[in-house]
């Protein structure tokens, strides 16, 4: 779009004309062993009953939604004893075919990283680096197409940001999270359009420190701002292909605002997976080859 920062925003009709979906490739893991047997974030309550069958049904519907939108879904086999392996986004960041793996803060999830490393090697990736700093991958890394937005504050160490720049060869901007409910960047921010000259994001300002809010306003003055209600249903854990935006079914108010910008909201039920603090994006690692 050619509008300057001082010009009025284009109308929804004008924006809608330029929203073009692009085919994506995702890596997912069936929640065959999903349960909540420990607590490593405020969403997790081991005393709350979990229905693994329902979790599998919801995950399957998410996978089929991606496929119906024209995207390719690759699968990694789940492993017994790793109930959070379904949240594939936390186990790797892939940009231009270069892979930076993960190193989890919680010991309960540590073994997941090597399962994903082996998947990458078995599937033809040769430039695979495992991090030295605590790094929870796309949980805290959001690629805008021009810069890597990198979260810290609860999981990923700040040192992992510079390590990602060195390994992936892309610039980063550090953002500090301050609300423990939004412990990963992908619970507070997601990228709407990473294929245009002017990337677009959606985020919940109160999840970030005052300084990080100023940074986001400077970099993305036209961002879609989410409300507390949007964040509380994990509405910011969305997945966009540049036109279609997959959101939790409760995030209808956010979906309406995105529709006003020319995006097409696509709703999925992730209520069972949310018991572990996960949503559509948590289940979805993008393979950017």
From TrEMBL:
Its EC number is 3.5.3.18. One of its GO terms (molecular function) is dimethylargininase activity. It comes from the Bacteria. Gene3D superfamilies: L-arginine/glycine Amidinotransferase, Chain A. The keyword Repeat does not apply. Keywords: Hydrolase. It is an enzyme of class 3 (hydrolase). This is Dimethylargininase. It comes from Kutzneria chonburiensis. The gene is ddaH.
